[in-house]
Amino acid sequence: MNLQVFTKWYAKYVLFALCCIILLVVPLIKGPLIGSEPLLYFRLAQDPSWYDTLSSGGQFAAYQWGTALALYIAPGIFIQILPFLLGILSFLILWKILHSNSEDLIFVNLSLLLFILSPAFIYTFSFTNSLFIACFLSIAAFYFYTSKKRRWISIPIVMIIPLFNIILSCAFMFILFFYSFFWKKERKKLFFINLFCTVLVAGIYYGYILFHTGLPKQLILETANQFQFSQKIFFDLGSPYGIGVFISILACIGLAILWEKKYAHLFFFLSTTFLLLFSLIRSESLLFLSIFLVLFAAKGLLTLFNIQWSNIQYKHFFILLIFSGLVFSSISQMDHLIESAPDNAILEGLYFLAEQENGVVFTDYSRGIWIEASGHTSVLDENYLFVPDAEQRFADSRELYFSRDLEQTQALFDKYEISYVWIDSEMKQRIWNYDTEGLLFILQYTKDYEQIYSKGGVEIWSVKS
Fold first, then answer.
1. 214: left (phi over 0), alpha (psi -120 to 50) or beta
2. Which of 103, 150, 285, 433 is spaced 20 to 30 Å from 348 by Cα?
3. pLDDT digits over 384-412, tens only?
C-alpha cells in the first residue's frame, strides 16, 4: 500500500463515503430493531412517563431518559436515521479534532480509517442504543473544549451527557481531567466549571430517581455474564463492542514508539490506562478506549511502513495480514448485528401477541422488553435494578421453569396474574435440558393451558383460567 494516497485531496471524501457505507450496511439489511434497546426507547418515546406500567409488573421509570426524549418528536423516523446522522457527524468532528492537532495528513486520515473500521464505532452508530448520542456529545464537547475561541460551548453539552449515559459521562470527565492537568493546563478553570455543572445536573436527576426508588438492587441474574478479562476487552473474543485484536497489536507498537517521549504524551497514556481499568468495571468506557487505541494504532502502522525490512515481501505480507484482520473484525461486527435477535420469527410472534387482549406475559427476563413493546406487561425484564421485588420475581421465575407441581405453578401464575407464556427456541436450548422438563411438561400435558401460536420456534400459550 502506498501511504501517499492518504495525502491526496480526495482522501477525506473517500473516507467519508466509506463511513457512510459502513453505517448503512446493518440498517439496510437488518433494519432498526437490534436487541432490546430500540424497542425500549421507541416505546418510551411514544409515551414518556415517570411510571412504567408494563415493566416488571409496573415500576418507577428509573431510566436514562435522554435518548427516549431525543426520539420524542418522531420516534418512527428518528429511530432509523438518528444513529446514522450522529455517526457521520462524529466522524467529521473527529476529523476536525485530529486535523487541528496534527499536521501529518497521513496520520490523520489513517486514524480516521481505523476509527470507522473499529467494532465499537460500527456497534455504536448502526442502531438506536444507550451509547450513540452520549458518544457523539462527548466527541462534540471535546472539540469545543479544546478549541481556542468556542471552548465555553462545551459546558452545556457536557452537562446533558449524564441524561443519556452516566457511565460515559463519568469516563469523559476523567478524560477532561487528564487533558486539563497533563496537557493544556490553562483549561483547569474550564474543567472545574464543567465538573460542577455536570455533577449538579447528574445529582438533581439521579437524586430524584433515587428518592423515589431507593438504591439499586445488587442482583446477578446470569453468572455466565461474568466474562474473563480478555472477553470483556476484545471484540473478537466476545465483547459486543470491544477492541479489535489487530488494532490492539498496532496500538502496542505505537505505544512502544511513543513511550520514549512518555512525559510529552501523559494525557494519552493516563487516559488509556484509566479507560482500560474502568472498562473492566463498566464496558461502556471501551468506546473511548477504542478511540485512543486507534491513534496509537495509526502511529504503529506508520512505523511498520517506515522501518526497513530485510525482505520487502515479508513487509507486504505482514501489512496485508493486519489490514485483513481489521476488515474481518468490521465484517464480523456487522454480521453479528445482522444476525442478532429479534429475528423475523420473533417479530411475527410479537405482532401476534400485540393483537391479543392485554395481560401479563411470563417469559425469560431477557425477553421482557420485547413483551412490553407488544403492549403487554412482563413479570421481569432487563431493567430490574430498581424493581423492589426483583430478587423474588427472579426466584419465582426459576421455580416456574423447573417445577412439575401443578398447584405450585398455578399459585405463582395467580400471584403475578399471568395470562400468557412466551417460549422461543433459544430459551428452550438455554434453560431446559429436555422437551418435557418443568414448565414445558405442564404446558403440554395439562388442560389449563392452550397453545395459541406456534411458528418459527416461537410458542405462545394462553392461561385458560
1. left
2. 433
3. 988 888 899 999 999 999 988 888 999 99
- Helix 105-117 vs helix 286-306: angle between axes, to the nearest 10 degrees? 130
Could you tell me how many residues make up the chain?
465
Could you give phi then psi for residue 360, rounded to 5 degrees? Answer: -90, 135
What Å distances lie between residue 153 and 89, 91, 146, 147, 236, CA to CA?
A: 17, 19, 11, 10, 38
269 in Cβ contact with 262 (< 8 Å): yes
Residue 144 contacts residue 154 (beta carbons within 8 Å): yes
CA distances, 78 to each of 10, 41, 73, 86 (Å): 31, 11, 8, 11
Dihedral over alpha carbons 232, 236, 242, 246 (to 10 degrees): 120
pLDDT single digits (tens) 151-179: 999 999 999 999 999 999 999 999 999 99
**CA 458 – CA 350 distance, rounded (Å):** 10
**Joined grid coordinates for residue 241:** 463492542
From the centroid of its chain, how far is CA 115?
17
Query: b/e per residue, 22-42, with b = 16+ CB within 10 A?
Result: bbebbbeebebbbbbbbbbbb
pTM, entire model: 0.92
